[in-house]
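thought: fold this chain, then report.
action: predict
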Amino acid sequence: MSIHVALNHVTHYRYDRPIVLSPQVVRLRPAPHARTPVHAYSLKVAPAKHFVNWQQDPQSNWLARYVFPEKTRELRIEVDLVAEMSVINPFDFFLEPHAEQFPFKYSDAQLRELESYLRKDPLTPLFKAYLDEIPRTPKPTNDFLVELNRQLARDVRYLIRMEPGVQTPEQTLALASGSCRDSGWLLAQLLRHLGIASRFVSGYLIQLKADQRSLDGPSGTEVDFTDLHAWCEAYLPGAGWVGLDPTSGLLAAEGHIPLACTPEPSSASPITGLTEKCEVEFSHAMRIERVREAPRVTKPYTDLQWAEIERLGHRIDADLVTHDVRLTMGGEPTFVSLDDRDGPEWNTEAMGPNKRRLGLSLFRKLKNRYAPKGLMHLGQGKWYPGEQLPRWSLSCFWRKDGEPVWQDPALLADETVNYGATPAQAATFLKALAEKLGLDPKHVFPAYEDTWYYLWRERRLPANVDPFDARLDDPLERARLRKVFKQGLDKAVGHALPIKKNSIRWESGSWFLRAERCYLMPGDSPMGLRLPLDSIPWAAAGDRPYAGPPDPTQRFAALPSYRKLQTADVRKQLSTGDRRAAPFESASWLARTAMCAEPRNGVLYIFMPPVDSLEDYLELTAAIEATAAELGFPLVLEGYEPPKDPRLQHFRITPDPGVLEVNVHPAASWSELVSNTEFVYEQARESRLTTEKFMLDGRHTGTGGGNHFVLGGPTASDSPLLRRPDVLASLIAYWHNHPSLSFLFSGMFVGPTSQAPRIDEARNDSVYEMEIAFRELERQSKLN
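observation:
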C-alpha cells in the first residue's frame, strides 16, 4: 500500500558574463544505504558540454564531479527521481545485548572504524551546561535517544535561515533557534560527547498530505511537500546507522532520503565548487507529484476512482428500479483502538478492558444520528465454545414509521457514572411499574446469591487462603467469589416481577418456590438469566409459554403511536396470581417470565422479559420510561431484545476477536449506503477507533469486514429474479471471484422490501423456493 512520487529539483545559477567554472562536485544522488526505494533517477547538467565522473567518497556517498572545458553564462542542475513512499518502521532492528542499555561501549574494532564519528568539538559554556543536564542513569538505549531527540526539538525553535554555513552548538543554544542543519549538528555533537558515534546527514525530506486529519495533534502539511533537509544519524551496534531528526523530534523514516552522510557538515554540501568573480542570479525550485497510489486503508480510492464508482452506483440503482429488483445492503465494518493497537483485545481476544467503553462511545454517536428517540439495549450477544460467558451486544432499535421508542435520552443511564442505585430503589421501581401495568406490587420479590453454594465453595478453598483473595486458577472464578463475599450473602442482588401478557392484559403472580427465598443460579450474568425457573411449579409442555418469531409474509398493521402506548388503558389483573397448583396439576396460569431490576456499580439495570409481539414490547418500554421519569431513576435496559419485526430497524456493536464489529442497518439505495458508510467510519475515528493495523515489519494493513446483500421481488410466483437466472448466475460468478463479499444466500426473500427478513429468522415455502433455485444455479456454475 505505497505511494510513488516524482521529485523534481532544479538549482540554477545565471552569471552576468561568460565565466570559468572549476570542477563542481554534486551530492544529489540518494546514498547507498537509503531505505526508501528509488525506482528511477536522473541528473541533468547544463552546459551540456562537460565531462562527468561518478565516484564515492570515503563514507560511500555518491559524488558526480563535473568538469567544464569552456566558459559559460549558466550552471543548471536538475534532479528527477521516483521514490516509493511505503511505510518504514524506524525501530525495525535488534540491538546487540551490550548496547541495549545506555550508556554502552563500542568494541575496540568499532572504535577504530568510528574514530572520525566520535571526534568532539571543544566544550563551551552553554553547550557544557546543556550536556550536563542530560541524565546518565542506565535506561534502554532506544528510549534514551527518543527522549533526547524530542527534548532538542522542544528547546530549539526551527527557523528558515538563508545564511550559508552551520552554526556552532554554542550559537544554536544561545539563540535557542536554528535551521535543520544547525539542530542536526548540535545533536551530533551531543551524541559524541555522550560516547555515541554520529554523523551529519544532508538529504531530501518528502512530506505528503495526510489522508485524515489528526485527532489530537498537528496533522502535518496541508499539501504534498519536499525540500532539502538535514538531520543526524547515530551508530548503534546491531542496528547500524539510525536517523534522528531533531527538527521534528522523530526518527527518520520513509520521508527522509539521505544524499550525503559525513563526519562534518562541510563535506555534505549538495554542491561545491568555485567560479570566477561575477554577479550571480540564483534560483532554486522543488516540486513533487504523486504518480501512482496503491489502494490503502485510509484512502482505498483516488478522487477520480471514487467519482466513477459513485456514477456506477447510481446507474445500477436505476437499473434495479427498472427491473423491479429489490436489493438492500448492510455492512459489518470492524475497528481497533487508535491508541492501543498492540493490546490483546485488539489482536486475539474477543473481550478486554476498553472494548465496551469505546464501543459505547461510537454507539452514542450513531444513535444520535440514526435514532435519537430510539431504544438503547445493552444486552448479551453470541456465546462461543470455550468462552465462559456470552459476549455483550450494544443494540439500538427504532421504528421505521418515525415514532419514538424512548422519548427522553436523559433517562438512559451512562454505565461509567455511579448513580448510587440500591436494591431498595430496584424494588421501588418494580412496584411503581407494577401499578402502571395494573399489577399487584406484592408480587415483587428480592433475589439472593445461593448461600449454600457459596458456603460449600468456601469450604472447598485451601485452608491458607482468604475468600476475598482466593488463589484460584480461573481469574473469572476469583473475581466471582470476591464480588459475592464482598457484597454479602445476606444482601439482595436485585428484585424480580413475574410478568406475562395475555390477549387483553398484563398478568403477574407468585412463584411458590421451594426455598424460603429466591436463590439465583451461580454465575456472572444478569440476574434475569439466573432465575431458578426449574423451581417454579410444574406445567405441561403445552402450557409453557413459547415466543416464536412472527410470520414475515403476513401484512403487518401500523404500530400504535408512542402517545397511545403511554396512555394505554390498563386493566387490573384478575386474582389468579395467588392460586397454588395442586399436586401434579399443570400450573398453566403462572407467569413464568419475569422483569428484573438489579443495581450494579451504582447503575440500575432493567432486565426485559421475552414477549410475543412488538406491540407488547413497546408498551412495556413506554411504561418503564414513564416510571423512570416519575421516580427520576436513569436506567439501562438489558435482557431480551424486541421481537424481530420488519417494522423495526436496528444497528448493533459487538466484540469479535481482535476487533469491534459494527453491524450497520441495511441501506435500500446507493446514496444511503454511501452516507451510512462514510458516517460510520468518521464517527468511529472520532471515537478513537480505526481500521488501520500495522504488522511487525511496519506494513500497513486493515481490520477487514463484510457486506450483506438481501434480494427481493414482488411475489414468489412472479419474481424477476426467478425469471432472470442470468442475473443470479452473474451474482454467483461475482461472489466466487470476490470471496471477501459474503452474499447471504440464506438472506434472500421474495416479498415487499420492507418485509425482507433472513431465512434463519422466518421459514416459509417462498423463501425455500428462491434458495433452492439460487443454489441450483450455484451448483451449475461450479460444474461449468
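thought: worth noting. Confidence is low (pLDDT under 50) at residues 711-723, 738-773.
final: C-alpha cells above.
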